[in-house]
Amino acid sequence: MAGKRRVVVEMTPAMVEQTIAGIDWAKVDATDDADIAAQIAADPDTAPVLSDVEHIASQVKLVRHRLSLTQAEFARRFQVSLGTVRDWEQGRRQPDGPAQVLLWVIDREPEAVLRALASRHAA
């Protein structure tokens, strides 16, 4: 953690109560894992410390969730074996360099990947 400092702030009971009173508990209760992953992705400073395997697994799952696809749908649509998607998400295997690039492009331009795959089959 070179270059990072930790600051400890002591809170009085009144400060704790004021903080808790400002929490929208309905919103907290409605937050699911995909929401949390999206918030982490949007603000990397809030990300928990994950191993490389856990980080890649959560990124693969996040990409799939952003597209609202099941593992089977994702695998079929992007021509990756279902077993591979499961292995990535469960941390049993990591995507290699080209697969990481593919996942990055799928996350940002899924329609471009689908067009490219469709044109490959049309040729």
State the gist of this model.
The chain is mostly helical and 123 residues long. The protein contains 8 helices and no strands. The protein has a domain at 52-122: Orthogonal Bundle (434 Repressor (Amino-terminal Domain)).
**Beginning-to-end CA distance, first to last residue:** 51 Å
Order of helices and strands: HHHHHHHH
Count of alpha/pi helices: 8
Main β sheet profile: none
Give me the CATH architecture of one domain, please.
Answer: Orthogonal Bundle
- Structure classification: mainly alpha
How many strand units?
Answer: 0
Quaternary structure classification: single chain
The low-confidence runs, each spanning 5 or more residues with pLDDT under 50, are none
User: On the 0-100 scale, what is the average pLDDT?
Assistant: 82
**The CATH topology of one domain:** 434 Repressor (Amino-terminal Domain)
Strand content: under 5%
Gyration radius over CA: 19 Å
Helix coverage percent:
55-70%
**What general form does the structure show?**
elongated
Could you name the CATH class of one domain?
Mainly Alpha
Question: CATH superfamily name of one domain?
Answer: lambda repressor-like DNA-binding domains
